[in-house]
Amino acid sequence: MKRLNKFIMYLILTLTVIITILPFIWMISASFKDIREIFSYPPTIIPDNFSFSNYLQLFAEYPFARNIFNSTFIAVTATTGSLFFCTLGGFGFAKFDFKFKNQLFLVLIASMLIPPQSIMIPLFLVFKRIGWVNTFYPLIVPGLANAFGIFFMRQYMTSIPDSLIEAARIDGGSDFYIFLKIIVPIVKPALATLGIIFFMNSWNAFVWPLIILQDIELQTIPVVLTNLQGVIYTPYNLIMAGSVISIIPLFVVFMFMQQYFISGITAGAVKQ
Amino acid sequence: MMKKNKSGLIFTSPFYILFLTFMVYPILFSFYLSFNKWNGVGEMEWVGLANYINLFRDDLVWKSMFNALFFFFTYVPVMLFLALVLAVFLNSNIKGRGFFRAAVYLPNITSLVAVAFTFQLLLDKNYGLLNMFLSYLGISSINWLGTPLGARLSIDMLMIWRWLGYNTIILLAGLQSIPEEMYEAAIIDGASKVQSFFRITVPLMKPVLLFTLVLSTIGTFRMFTEVFILTGGGPANSTLTPVVHLYNTGFNWFKFGYASSITYLIILITLILSMVQMKLLNEKEVKS
């Protein structure tokens, strides 16, 4: 009975993993097929005519190298900038007292309730008025000091003993010096977790890049993949090749930093 | 203790500046806009409450709300049930827990655009893998993306596939916080595995389950990319979601005034949902 239970458990888990992995295998497989083989019956898992030509064509006919650079540049800039301002903001809320602090913190929490997509129309008009359409600014600047990041860092910092900060203050360190030399080194694990969340969100972002980036030279990978889709004909072979490239970076990061992804998910959950 | 000086205010000020510029101002601006007719380039025309009146007459608004509810009531129960089962399995004494956990989580870190295009291929009526498997079971080919019900179920499948692992990890963390002694005590009292699942696991997991439910509600009302790529909201608007409708109204039909009134409807609904959820979560906190 016990062995049967175990067997059923492994069976269900293995089946789930197969279903989970299958779309990835399909994506990779299709990226090495020509369009005729993608649309042939029965479908083949291992391509009959294995070839790299989709990848070559993607880079030859489209500014795809430039698109990869755009995605990377935006994700790296947004992540580093947001980490800095969110850690600073978290420090401000966790370790200082100032006028209306509690009310302002409540505003911060409340701002998380408004879904950013819901204000896409007026926000787009704001970007248009200040000349930010077709630039990277809308994808980096508004999220620099975001409520979630500040809240996350503030929660983490409340556990840092005040005596550490006091000691540095007696030594004559300014508040910003204390931030850089004492706080930042202590919160490194939280920075890794938050950094991964920011990078992932920026790298996979779709709605705002779609609205803002109009020139193909400026577009990020997800947007350019969408634009390959035509009204009559969609080159799925090229889209699959681009898709494979788009998922590689996060897969690699995930392999090496899995525990930070997991702690990012469970941070909010179990405390609740 | 805490120092009272300007530093705290200065350190937190980037948030206020960005919040006022990129959230408060746009929301106020769209309030004004919602009483106007405007295509984005010409003159604005004051129309009073016309946009809000149109909102109630707009079948697409209500259809998109209905669709969101349909998605919520179909994919969320299935997903959370499966996630709980997986979490219980992973919490028991099995080999390769780390591998299984990592594998089911992978879909969540993948670009939704890449995944949605892959699902288009997998769900293709004539050449898709799913219909091939179904044909082995003797089921004739289903037009997943071309029929209203098929398209809705396709979105459900994509949502479950993408969020199952994420929820499993949250529930697993919850299970791991249940002390082992409780189960040992139950075994001594002669409880079976199934009994202790329903008498111990489920009640103690209620807060965590509620938390995943809250996340799923928010996620459902924000759905955009899944639908935008996989079905485009079709066929016959059967998968249109509120945010996709908002996007179309603004960026395809250039009705910025009317789109602003939809903005307010979505914000209103989200706030109501959030308040209900906060009440639920608070009640739970009081109890525990």
From TrEMBL, chain A:
The keyword Membrane applies. InterPro entries: MetI-like, MetI-like_sf. Its main location: membrane. It is a multi-pass membrane protein. It is found in: Cell membrane. Keywords: Cell membrane, Membrane, Transmembrane, Transmembrane helix, Transport. SUPFAM superfamilies: MetI-like. Pfam families: BPD_transp_1 (PF00528). GO terms for cellular component: plasma membrane. Residues 68-257 form the ABC transmembrane type-1 domain. GO terms for biological process: transmembrane transport. The chain crosses the membrane at residues 7-28, 68-93, 105-127, 139-157, 178-200, 236-257. Signal peptide: none annotated. Belongs to the binding-protein-dependent transport system permease family. This is Carbohydrate ABC transporter membrane protein 2 (CUT1 family). It comes from Halanaerobium saccharolyticum.
UniProtKB/TrEMBL annotation, chain B:
Gene3D superfamilies: MetI-like (1.10.3720.10). GO terms for biological process: transmembrane transport. It is found in: Cell membrane. The chain crosses the membrane at residues 12-35, 68-90, 102-123, 129-151, 208-233, 253-276. Keywords: Cell membrane, Membrane, Transmembrane, Transmembrane helix, Transport. Residues 65-277 form the ABC transmembrane type-1 domain. The keyword Transmembrane helix applies. GO terms for cellular component: plasma membrane. PROSITE patterns: ABC_TM1 (PS50928). It is a multi-pass membrane protein. Belongs to the binding-protein-dependent transport system permease family. This is Carbohydrate ABC transporter membrane protein 1 (CUT1 family). It comes from Halanaerobium saccharolyticum.
